[in-house]
Design goal:
Layout (H helix, E strand, L loop, with lengths): L3 H35 L5 H29 L32 H22 L6 H15 L1 H7 L5 H6 L7 H19 L20 H21 L2 E5 L9 E4 L5 E2 L1 H22 L4 H15 L8 H26 L7 H19 L35 H29 L7 H6 L15 H14 L4
Antiparallel strand pairs: 1-2, 2-3
Length: 472
Amino acid sequence: MTDQATGMLTVFTEFYFFLCIVLMFFIHIGFCMYEVGVARTKNVQHTLLKNAMAIPVVGIAFFLFGMWIYIALQGWPVATTEVSFATGFEPWSEKLAPNLSDRISGVFWGAFALFGMTAASIVSGSIIERSKTIGFLIIAIYAGAIAWVFPAAWGWAGNGWMTQYLGFHDQYCSAVLHSVSGFVALGVLLNLGPRIGKFGPDGAPREIPAHNPWMVTIGLFMIYVGFFGFYAACHIPLANIAAEGQPEYWTATNIYGFPITLSGVCLNFLLALFGGMMTAYLISGGNAFWTFSGGLTGLISASAGNDLYHPFVALALAVIGTVIGYYLHNWVEKKFKLDDAVGAVAVHGYCGVFGGIAAGFALWGYPAIYPSAGTLVALSEGAGWFGVNAEGLPIVTPMGNTICTLIFAIGFGLIPGYILSGLLKAFGLLRVDPKVELTGLDGETQGSTYPGLSGAEAAFEKLQLKEGRSKI
């Protein structure tokens, strides 16, 4: 580094993303606790290990090709037909070696890898207590290192072609990551089927009791903590946004180069969290599971525009999204016999789609890219298909955000999730044998985690065993 100011900026940015990674690991502590708490005692160790193994599997996949996809394909195939293999994020790149090049790439990659692990964990929770580990890990590679990375390259960067041509805006990944992962889970569930005993002879859904509500609660709060890191990692911590020839102006920016303040983002974050929890508590009649999940529905419903929203907008979208997620979950469960063990399709899928589309209306007319964003010099000819502002920059529109959100959720989530899980099902890699499901996925280790069952769990086990005999 050539001077002290450059050195301080580099070390600050490096340490900023390092701390974001540490905070985001709380998301995975939370997911593990959450899923284990929901699972029954006979499936505890399998559930824990399945989710934990998504971390190294997705991490290695992101090292091998995930980050390359994000950097290399931002303009492809619309803004450019060329794809560069020299992005600096190939596994053999000297940029990734210690003390070489920019000293930022490693922590920048780490933050993105943690995003990918979150995408995989979203799918994990929905399919617990009947999925095979190998099948899940294959799905995790797709969800965590491919499915959300294409949307991120196209619409979660100032140079992304969906940002430049369609005016897409999704700062904290409502559509880019959450809707994609939620709809991957939906596609998998359609092939996986419900747990034995989940639906009665009349088709009515039964409540499968969580073995440890305390663990569920603490797990969700851990995810809240990790979400602070998730939000922070979506920022450029310090950048000069002044136009050429103007005095320097240093500030934090969003992923599109817009100046933002952590103070304003924090206010919107907390109001969305509070609004989701309060709404879920009221509409669910005080159901603990939905009350705490409501914090996530609120956040995800407002995340697409929480960098620019007025606080009342963030609060209102959190309330509306939570209502949509809760009632749509219950309707789909009854109508289509969908057994989503942790409500991931609703919390992440339905609310992610709502958040992505809503941002197009709430931010209608905002420029999609800040004039001095990143390496952007001038827009390609024909950019801004749905409108531009006085500076010729593409603007956020309802049509642009709606089109992109649906492409992400359906084109990268639902359809591939259904096809991939269908192939796994055909090869016997998706669901465990009914005997294994009835006995418990922990196998011989069952009973070593807890000495006995709670009354509610024991009663359901007796019912499941009775109805499960017909499936063997």
